[in-house]
Amino acid sequence: MKHRLLKVAAVSVALTAGAVSTVNMVQPALPVQAISKKKAVNQLNFRKVKITKKTYVRKVHTRIPLYKSTLGPWMYVMPGDVVYVRQTGTNFDWYMEVPGHSGKYAIMKKHNDYSWFTLNTKPKRFKAYLSGTTYRDTKGVKASINNATNVKTDDGTFTVVTATVTNNSSRSITPSEWFTSSLAFCSVNPKKTKLKQSNILFSSDDFPSGSQWDSLITAGDKKIGHGNSVKIAVPLQFTSNSRAVDPLYIMPMGLDSLQYATLHPSSATLSK
Questions:
Q1: Rounded to whole angstroms, how far apart are CA atoms 82 and 120?
Q2: What span, in angstroms and rounded, lies between the C-alpha atoms of 132 and 163?
Q3: Contact, 102 vs 96, CB < 8 A?
Q4: What is the rounded CA–CA span in Å between residue 61 and residue 70?
Q5: What is the phi/psi pair of residue 2, to 5°?
Q6: Per-residue confidence of the chain (272 residues) as pLDDT tens digits?
Q7: Is 0.85 topped by the overall pTM?
Q8: Angle of CA points 51, 80, 53, to nearest 5°
Q9: What whole-number distance in Å separates Cα of residue 254 and Cα of residue 256?
Q10: Whole-Å CA distances, 106 to 17, 23, 66, 84, 98
Q11: 88: how many CB neighbours lie within 10 A of its CB?
Q12: First and final CA of the chain: distance in angstroms?
């Protein structure tokens, strides 16, 4: 119930901001201090950088003396990942520390190749927008909403929304969580009617299994990294008085002006 109340409050804030007619432009981050990449990574300490190209690394199994160290299995870091690197010119030349992974990794790059990272580790900022039924937030995560279906079941009526979520942010996301926290789903026009909790649909874990949406619901609960897309389905339901909705109003929570998309759900019946 707590998260539902928080969302109602967030919707109210969004409606209050509705007097603003345009979306504010996000100013790009200032460039880092001018310094060559070579000089930056040829230091005693590791330098924080952001990966710009898919880069293969291998874990270093340290031995004494160091030249007897060996390399473990391959893994890779993806564009947008923030890591720590150092170039020593000895043994494996390039070394990396990867947040969330223990030990050090050797970087499978030539000694004079500095094209795969940037010193600017600030997250890229995007202009948020709603165009038709496509919404993108300021971090670059985008949802292209496909359709909605009012599904009558023995456990009540649900509205299942399907969408394709694309993650262009620098971090991994759980698509269904991002989808339901970034968008409000309403049964009334938010420009004409004051929203109440009874007008808002919330994500529901009570939707019966064994439907055509099972695989899409499961896909939405799995994290995706930078540059990946996945098609998901999210079951929604009113907190009380379970019922079908038509039209369904979808309002982004990350815009400075009140905008919404409209869907007309189809109907289906799911029996045990």
A1: 10
A2: 13
A3: no
A4: 5
A5: -60, -45
A6: 444 544 554 555 454 444 333 333 333 444 444 468 888 888 888 999 999 888 999 999 888 887 788 888 888 888 888 999 998 866 778 889 998 888 899 998 888 899 999 998 887 788 899 999 999 999 999 999 999 999 999 989 999 999 999 998 878 899 999 999 999 999 999 888 888 888 999 999 999 999 999 999 999 999 998 889 999 999 999 988 789 999 999 999 878 778 999 999 999 998 76
A7: no
A8: 45
A9: 7
A10: 50, 44, 13, 12, 11
A11: 14
A12: 28
Distance CA 53, CA 227 (A): 12
Extract the tokens encoding 20.
Answer: 């603003």
Compute CA distances 229 → 52, 79, 82, 253, whole Å: 19, 15, 21, 21
